[in-house]
Amino acid sequence: MTKDDKNNVINLFSAVQNINGMPPEIRDQVKFYAGFNYVKHTKDANGNTFNKENLLNYASKCHYMVTVMREINSEVVVYSYHVPNSDLFKFMKSFEENKLDGTIIKIDKYFPEDLA
Hints:
Layout: H1 3-14, H2 24-27, E1 30-33, E2 36-39, H3 52-61, E3 63-72, E4 75-84, H4 88-96, E5 103-110
Antiparallel strand pairs: 1-2, 3-4, 3-5
């Protein structure tokens, strides 16, 4: 995702708060399901349909650095967790089940083989 793509996503969803004031072509793209706004994509930025194998291969290589803030003995501390894509849901569920606590501050995506 390019910087422009990220800005478009941010601009689109920040505008959702005032969805009635949005142009119809934008408003019709934003849907709501299970408590979250989303936009459905049927083709990539180049106009090609998505390839299941390519997406699964991409996902298998993707990892996340999840930054979590906690307050311990009146001191604010930050933990950085390395979470492979395959474990991301398990990691998030551990917060819901109170196995982990704190506030998620940031989630950065990276690919270990791309590190210098």
